[in-house]
Design a protein that fits this description.
Length: 241
């Protein structure tokens, strides 16, 4: 369990549950209390519907759903070349702050994340750019201005699409599609076997793009949110005399 990234100001912690019973739930509540959380985002999948039912019975509601899909690079067709000229963070490390400015707008624009608040530039750079290959972080530029970017996380011969973000005025021009095609080409050139994506179900344009490019849906991640109603500390029950 950890504070829910972007939702710390709401007092939310996040945790994964792959099974649920009263003992596990008591442990979750105890950990949340130790973290000082007053609410939880609980991650689970559609492969364990009993967890979803358990959470709904405790007043938790579904706030986001992500299709997890995978491209098998050995059998996937070669994507068409990117239709928009792109550079990379390896070529233009000086653009990191401009990427952050796009991220500041794009994070709360994600479905179900309107309340999200991004950390400072240095903290954001520490988890969203620094650990990932800068040559696989593609950037769309027009007249010197950053329109958007997308990065890959890489673990051995498996890679995952990280966040893709477009400036509001640049959306709907096929730029996210161009970034994805460039990432597929990079993955192929670097011996990656599988490329995973997590896309919120409301981003129908991204889901149909994935389908066109040959990604296969594996399962759906579900995020439930609820309050914990932990009694205030120092509460002393008054017993009848
Ligand atoms: C989600 C987001 C990244 C999409 O970026 P975008 O540049 O507007 O997306 P594109 O225009 O490239 O659209 C993606 C694909 O869907 C197609 N498309 C666009 N609108 C469509 C529609 N209404 N129906 C079906 N397909 C559509 C595009 O043609 C493109 O496919 P192509 O590359 O084969 O041409 C952007 O809206 C954004 O930054 N949102 C906020 C942050 C966010 O939610 N990020 C999560 C990304 S997974």
């Amino acid at each position: 369990m950890r504070p829910a990234q972007g939702f710390e100001h709401l007092g939310l912690a996040e945790v994964w549950l792959r099974s649920a019973d009263e003992a596990a739930w008591a442990e979750v509540r105890a950990r949340a209390e130790r973290l000082g959380a007053t609410g939880l985002e609980v991650w689970t999948t559609d492969e364990t519907p009993e967890v979803a039912a358990f959470l709904r019975a405790r007043g938790f509601g579904l706030v986001r759903s992500y299709a997890i899909s995978e491209l098998d690079l050995a059998s996937a067709p070669d994507p068409a070349p990117s239709s928009f000229p792109l550079t990379t963070l390896a070529e233009r490390p000086d653009l990191a702050l401009a990427l952050y400015e796009v991220a500041l707008v794009a994070y709360p624009d994600q479905p179900g994340r309107s309340e999200s608040q991004l950390s400072t530039f240095e903290i954001w750079r520490g988890w969203s750019l620094a650990p990932h290959p800068p040559g696989a972080c593609f950037i769309a530029l027009e007249n010197g201005a950053v329109l958007g970017y997308g990065y890959l996380t890489v673990d051995g011969d498996a890679a995952t699409h990280g966040f893709t973000a477009l400036a509001r005025g640049a959306r709907g021009r096929g730029i996210a599609g161009a970034i994805k095609r460039a990432q597929i080409a990079w993955a192929r050139q670097h011996g990656i076997r599988t490329l995973r994506a997590a896309n919120e179900l409301r981003l129908t344009q991204m889901l149909s793009l994935n389908e066109r490019l040959g990604y296969r849906v594996l399962y759906t991640e579900l995020v439930f949110r609820g309050r914990l109603e932990i009694p205030p500390t120092g509460f002393e029950p008054v017993l009848p005399a």
